[in-house]
Amino acid sequence: MLKLRKQNFPIAGHEKLRLYLAYTVAALADTKTPQFQEHNFVPTNNHIQELQESQILPFRDPKVCVSSLLGSRSVFQIRQIHSQLVVNGMLQNLIVANKLLYVYAHHKAMDDAYAMFHRMRGRNAVTWSVMVGGFAKVGDYATSFGIFRELIRCGVTPDNYTLPFVIRACRDMTDLVTGKLIHAVVLKHGLHSDHFVCAALVDMYAKCKLIEDARQLFDNMSSRDLVSWTVMIGAYAECRNAYESLVLFDRMTEEGVVADKVAVVSVVYACAKLGAMHKARLVHDYICRNKFSLDVILGTAMIDMYAKCGSICSARDIFDRMKEKNVISWSAMIGAYGYHGHGSEALEIFRVMLRSGILPNSITFISLLYACSHAGLIEEGLRFFSLMWDEYSIRPDVKHYTCMVDLLGRAGRLDEALRLVESMKIVKDEGLWGALLGACRIHGNVDLAEMAANSLLQLQPQNPGHYVLLSNIFAKAGRWKDVARIRDLMSQRKLKKIPGWTWCEVDNKIFQFSAGDRSHPRSEEIYGMLESLYKKLELAGYVPDTNFVLHEADEEVKVGMLYAHSEKLAIAFGLLATSNETPIRITKNLRVCGDCHTFSKFVSALTERVIIVRDANRFHHFKKGACSCGDYW
DNA sequence: GGGAAGTAAC
């Protein structure tokens, strides 16, 4: 390698030499150096040191200054250059001064940047945007907003660089009030057509859960770039409308926008949310075709996708093929085994993880305890619960306690579960009470259920799901007056039962069903299939379980209500539209209804089909009249 | 001379 010496330097002239050296510094920092490449020179860290020692950089040429700043490796180095720039009066040059601010911000040295910013007499749009963006990036939103306000006070017009930073700060704080104010500023300055500004606004509204507002802005964008698509796709997946995410992904592809890795991760995430197996395979193909490497982020997202689409084998295959795995990847795999009810595999992979030298974190233990509770591994669960603090100094939080309540409650050890809840010294949340209430439902403990439900309704009076669960428990015990009381409470509080949806994927198309739905083009056939199924099932001994109907009504009416639940419609459609060998895969947005669970068991026996149901909680594999959940869910 | 979106449990 060429050693950097004046005598063998390829360009003549002293000034050029300085420039060349500056470019060398910049190249070491991987910045763009076309001139540098011309000379086919590969610099090393020694060169930069030599450069500093030789004090050859006089910092009088703005270009040299800028390149040197870009080449800085540490805040210390920037400060050294800073002092030279002051001595040489180079900070009078706004380009140089702004670059100095920028590199300070880039190294997160915002104190240095701020001190300098206050001494600067001349400021321009770049100065302001570097400061606003710099503070936003390090999470100091208060200062970022403060500088933005100062900008407005100084009569400066905010531009398409500054505004996205401020909008993103609103997003990170989910500060919708300020966000809307900034939106007004955007409109005032006519910047709503800038795609950076617009993408930031879409993201802000989406993260603040105003998905409709986000969508409206997105639809009105004159040109939608990849980032806006990615934001919108991710937003729909996040707000439980993964179906729309995948519709958008198809539209994006049709419009000729090519996904990058970030976009693909969002799509993978949406597939996971929806549990859409065919779509998952197609996305996997897309990933292979476009040669995305299976890095730790994409790989982990794919493990979760395949697991949540019902294929634990494919999830394991991805896991095994990943070259680099971190604690997140291992936790995802443990979690995957967990919600498929494969407890011993989850425990085994945890042991392998420990042997590989990866330390578990808090979430690893949640996955592990969850796996234990869903596989009935009670003693193991109890052991891990004490191990996490004793051995790994991870303090159990409310989620770990929730798993333990679930574990004990599911096993019928409700007293122990209650004692654990009472002994907790941390704040109890709705998930914890929900787990206790769920256990009461399985074991028909109405008194404890009432107590759990009271705490639950105090914490979350607006969640209709809790009322429905309690009402189901009362109904099962035949306490119809209490059922009516709950129903009245719900209507007083203007709460409606969350509509149940079931998705079934056939021929790469996702079909969505709601109860009593007749919108499907093959609706006639579906209802015909349902009717013939009912006739056969009745002979096989199936009795509709009307305990799962919330309202007090005549038995006949109740049976009618159960008749066309979305799960049943989806299963009937699956039977019609798929071949005998393929499993019927359906996904439900809520917990599967008890009657539909029984119905699925009977159908799996009668038709000799495998039915894989993913509900809000876990997977149910129905085969030959039995379910993998062992009827506890 | 200054910009973006993504991974695990419930």
From TrEMBL:
<feature type="repeat" description="PPR">
    <location>
        <begin position="397"/>
        <end position="427"/>
    </location>
</feature>
<dbReference type="InterPro" id="IPR011990">
    <property type="entry name" value="TPR-like_helical_dom_sf"/>
</dbReference>
<feature type="repeat" description="PPR">
    <location>
        <begin position="225"/>
        <end position="259"/>
    </location>
</feature>
<feature type="domain" description="DYW">
    <location>
        <begin position="541"/>
        <end position="633"/>
    </location>
</feature>
<keyword id="KW-0677">Repeat</keyword>
<dbReference type="Pfam" id="PF20431">
    <property type="entry name" value="E_motif"/>
</dbReference>
<dbReference type="InterPro" id="IPR046960">
    <property type="entry name" value="PPR_At4g14850-like_plant"/>
</dbReference>
<dbReference type="GO" id="GO:0008270">
    <property type="term" value="F:zinc ion binding"/>
</dbReference>
<dbReference type="InterPro" id="IPR032867">
    <property type="entry name" value="DYW_dom"/>
</dbReference>
<dbReference type="GO" id="GO:0031425">
    <property type="term" value="P:chloroplast RNA processing"/>
</dbReference>
<dbReference type="InterPro" id="IPR002885">
    <property type="entry name" value="PPR_rpt"/>
</dbReference>
<feature type="repeat" description="PPR">
    <location>
        <begin position="194"/>
        <end position="224"/>
    </location>
</feature>
<dbReference type="InterPro" id="IPR046849">
    <property type="entry name" value="E2_motif"/>
</dbReference>
<protein>
    <submittedName>
        <fullName>Pentatricopeptide repeat-containing protein At4g21065-like</fullName>
    </submittedName>
</protein>
<comment type="similarity">
    <text>Belongs to the PPR family. PCMP-H subfamily.</text>
</comment>
<feature type="repeat" description="PPR">
    <location>
        <begin position="326"/>
        <end position="360"/>
    </location>
</feature>
<feature type="repeat" description="PPR">
    <location>
        <begin position="124"/>
        <end position="158"/>
    </location>
</feature>
<dbReference type="GO" id="GO:0009451">
    <property type="term" value="P:RNA modification"/>
</dbReference>
<dbReference type="Pfam" id="PF20430">
    <property type="entry name" value="Eplus_motif"/>
</dbReference>
<dbReference type="GO" id="GO:0003723">
    <property type="term" value="F:RNA binding"/>
</dbReference>
<dbReference type="Pfam" id="PF13041">
    <property type="entry name" value="PPR_2"/>
</dbReference>
<dbReference type="InterPro" id="IPR046848">
    <property type="entry name" value="E_motif"/>
</dbReference>
<dbReference type="Pfam" id="PF12854">
    <property type="entry name" value="PPR_1"/>
</dbReference>
<dbReference type="Pfam" id="PF14432">
    <property type="entry name" value="DYW_deaminase"/>
</dbReference>
<dbReference type="Pfam" id="PF01535">
    <property type="entry name" value="PPR"/>
</dbReference>
